[in-house]
Amino acid sequence: MSTTLLNSLTQGTAARSLVSDNLTLSLNLTLKLFNDKNIFKFFMMMGYFPGGARDEDIDHLWKSMNKGKLSEWKIYCTYLENASIVIKKKVKFNKESIEVYQLVPMLKNIAEEIGVKHERQNLHKLVTKYYSEILEQILRENSVSDNSKDNEVLMNNLWFFETNVWD
């Protein structure tokens, strides 16, 4: 897996050429040190959320990816935070400030490219299914609820992902 990451960092588009050799080596060693395939899955998953992912978003996807093992994603997230690969930041959402996790921006494309093709395709399907579930909930709630507050909360939930969908 680390060879794939190194190749992704050192070949290809001009955006990747901005990544220095030191960063390439540092990232490769950081991921290699953890020596657990799940850290790569977490890193790849975060590439699908350039605008950030909330705890509940990661909970939902991680549970889907790992047959119900929910809590362990926080271990990988903390490790990548300590390595300055994932950042936690506060963003305005629904008139309040919430915490989201996101990859350091220059690493997003790399996260999307590492891994075996079928792993990336499965992850893409899970993320798409997650967005579809939010849309289905909006449709369901709009058809049975006259409560505009409920509808507003659901729409804001979807709008939160706008930066992820349009990136």
Describe the structure.
- This protein has 10 helices and 2 strands; from the N terminus they run ααααααββαααα.
- With 167 residues, the chain is mainly α.
- It has one domain (2-165).
- A two-stranded antiparallel sheet has the order 1-2.
- α1 (2-10) runs antiparallel to α3, α5 (55-65) crosses α8 (117-144) and α8 packs antiparallel against α9.
Q: What pattern of helices and strands is seen along the backbone?
A: HHHHHHEEHHHH
Number of strands: 2
Number of domains: 1
Q: Main sheet, how many strands, which sense, barrel?
A: 2 strands, antiparallel
Q: Total number of helical segments?
A: 10
Shape: globular
User: Widest sheet: strand order?
Assistant: 1-2
Mean of residue pLDDT?
A: 75
Distance between the termini: 26 Å
Strand content: 5-15%
Structural Rg: 17 Å
Q: Helices and strands: which structural class?
A: mainly alpha
Relative helix content: 55-70%
The residue ranges in which pLDDT falls below 50 over 5 or more consecutive positions are: none
What are the key terms here?
mainly alpha; globular; 10% strand; two-stranded antiparallel sheet; single chain; 167 residues; 2 strands; 65% helix
Short overview:
With 167 residues, the chain is mainly alpha-helical. The protein has one domain (2-165). It contains ten helices and two strands.
Topology record:
Blueprint: H1 2-10, H2 14-17, H3 21-34, H4 37-46, H5 55-65, H6 73-82, E1 86-93, E2 96-103, H7 108-113, H8 117-144, H9 148-160, H10 162-165
